[in-house]
Amino acid sequence: MRRAMDRARMRGILPPLTIVVLVGIYAVVLHGVYAGQVSPAFDYLGYRYRDPGAGPLILSTAIAAGTALTLPRRLATASSVVLWVLFTVTVAPTVLMSTYTSYLDPARGLALAALVGMVFSIVALGQNPAPRPLGFRLRSPVVWTLVGLFAAATFVLLGVVQGLSFELVGILDVYDVRADFAEKLESVGILSYLVATQANVVNPWIAARGVLERRWWLVGVAIIAQLVLYSTTGYKHVLFAIAAWLVMLIVLQPRKERTPGSILLAGATAMVVVAAVVDQLLSTNLATSLFSRRFILTPGMLSTAYVRFFSDNPQAHLGYSVLRPFVDYPYDETPPYLVGAMITNGKVIASNANLFADGFANFGWLGVAGAGAVLLVYLRLVDRASVGLPILMSAIVLIIPAVALSNASVLTSMLSHGLVVAFGLLALTPRPHVGALGIDLAYLRSPRRRQSPVFRVRS
Asked: What is the pLDDT of residue 234?
């Protein structure tokens, strides 16, 4: 009886109240860290602060909380993982920081917050809670052959062009490595796509299969491959991806019941607080810069900067990209460099924006809605591609491509950061036939059923 009452409470007022409180804490933490630590130290990079007053802060927090209440309560589908990740690292920072980065007046900042919150809520509410499977699969040996051939092509070409490095590079020493790799990419552009796909999708898929099938040597292979890519290219996100896999493993243990999505928001809040405390104790800004500024605060700050620049200047209309033959592009540089020059007073830096900021850069307020529409369609498709797979596999494969949306457009993330390949690989991954009750009778008769929790009764 008591358990039934607890379940009823969890379906009632407790989860919404918990989410609202978590969003409020997140708002206070982001504001405190940005105003007190990040802005004073990184003002020269565009991280400026202006006190908007209590009213706009309260309104933006209310918008963020209302948006969070429209998200799935549990991490039960591929789309639910992507939605909560995007909310935590892109949508919430954009909404909460819209009024105090100094680039927009409070009224226009709240307009941005309201539109982004509304669009993201529509994306969340537009997901199908019971998606149908796509209906096509490949046999496991075929999939492994394709994965192996792709990995071989990536590492062979990387070895020929750059030379593989097996010496782990320090986190503060990657810039020379990355600059050298960037020069090599000018002659072999396809290598950047291969490396991004290998690091963001293929290695995570191998690691997920290893975890779920208890073949730990596969996990080791994926981690080693990731470390080699990091040391060879200097891309820090490749190294941090391993930590993201671990987070997904902890949060979505195979034998654990469905996990509240708000746990990702709580974890991000704790990370920001810990980084701030560490920097205060050590009198540095390294931890805050790595784990808060670049990962969470930058998407929020750049959203307002993009709206500022492309409200005062002509929009891009994808004239630097897929619509180049049809559009008269009015600039010599792409939007990231235009905004980078604005926020740094003329320095040459690429300030890559999230999907909503990029949407505004190209088509204004309609572009924000357009980015949301593309995301809605993609998430519905990826849910269909993931039917019958353990949520842990979908989460590990999608976590880094989802984070990529925080500093890239939808089109770039689809083609260059692995969203399309993740969809295809999840769709082709073998799984048992799941009947109406979600039970695979053939697997239940298998002698390996106790060794591997990959295929379980779907809850």
From this structure: 82
